[in-house]
């Protein structure tokens, strides 16, 4: 009898290589129920549906919906008694503070936090340099070994160690597994604050471009030690302990404005 029960979801879709790699790794020691999108739902953030068709799957359930849908549907109806939500493994890193709200992978973990259920989001950094485009890489489940190993470690130990008493979810990014170098070591990080989005207006349309990824390919990364992007570029598994609800603090200037609002 397993001592851990897991709701497993993602945003690449239930048939993706990274999802199967993670399902197989966690199933070795935990009771895993898949509640994942039937199709690719990348970069949808916390988009929600009002209705989502559910189809039974050999690993659990496939939803015609978003990652956030899957978390809510799983925790409310399909497998409500799980110990943890695990989301991933996404093909492509989810690093940097500006990415967190866009990522379906991360958003599934954020949604779990509002149920007070510990969660882990896992993504794979796939380099864009070399002759093979990044989207044609990471086709072998073994490429995801660093991420699945980190997932297994945290599922086994994080709750007992009290990790989720100080954070709501973990955002984990891992480099592709290097068969020559062996498993990657781990660093605790914070999301990078580097932001380099551009927009160009021409002929009635605007072209939006995220320059961070090409800067990563060129090695032009100003991120300091301790950030998620720096750790992954240097070959480490990055784990950022994060909180989900928006935080606030006492704001004297706003207090003063509010007091004079009706004057």
From TrEMBL:
Keywords: Cytoplasm, Hydrolase, Metal-binding, Nucleotide-binding. Its main location: cytoplasm. It holds the Pfam family SurE. Its EC number is 3.1.3.5. InterPro entries: SurE (IPR030048), SurE-like_Pase/nucleotidase (IPR002828), SurE-like_sf (IPR036523). It catalyses: a ribonucleoside 5'-phosphate + H2O = a ribonucleoside + phosphate. A divalent metal cation binds at residues 11-12, 42, 90. Its cofactor is a divalent metal cation. Binds 1 divalent metal cation per subunit. It comes from the Archaea. It is found in: Cytoplasm. Residues 6-192 form the Survival protein SurE-like phosphatase/nucleotidase domain. Belongs to the SurE nucleotidase family. This is 5'-nucleotidase SurE.
């Amino acid at each position: 009898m397993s001592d851990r029960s897991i709701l497993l979801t993602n945003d690449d879709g239930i048939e993706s290589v990274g999802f199967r790699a993670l399902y197989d790794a966690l199933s070795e020691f935990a009771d895993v129920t898949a509640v994942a999108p039937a199709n690719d739902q990348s970069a949808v953030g916390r988009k929600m549906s009002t209705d989502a068709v559910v189809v039974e799957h050999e690993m659990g359930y496939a939803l015609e919906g978003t990652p956030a849908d899957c978390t809510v549907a799983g925790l409310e109806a399909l497998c409500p008694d799980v110990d943890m939500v695990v989301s991933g493994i996404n093909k492509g890193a989810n690093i940097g503070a500006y990415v967190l709200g866009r990522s379906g992978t991360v958003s599934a973990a954020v949604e779990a936090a509002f149920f007070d259920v510990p969660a882990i989001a896992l993504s794979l950094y796939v380099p864009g340099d070399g002759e093979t485009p990044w989207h044609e890489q990471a086709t072998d489940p073994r490429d995801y070994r660093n991420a699945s190993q980190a997932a297994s470690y945290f599922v086994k130990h994080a709750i007992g160690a009290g990790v989720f008493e100080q954070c709501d979810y973990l955002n984990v990014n891992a480099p592709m597994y290097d068969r020559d170098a062996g498993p990657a070591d781990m660093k605790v990080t914070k999301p990078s604050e580097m932001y380099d989005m551009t927009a160009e207006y021409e002929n009635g349309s605007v072209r939006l471009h995220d320059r961070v990824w090409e800067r990563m390919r060129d090695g032009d990364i100003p991120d300091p030690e301790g950030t998620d992007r720096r750790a992954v570029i240097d070959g480490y598994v990055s784990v950022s302990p994060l909180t989900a609800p928006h935080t606030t603090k006492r704001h004297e200037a706003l207090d003063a404005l509010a007091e004079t609002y009706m004057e």
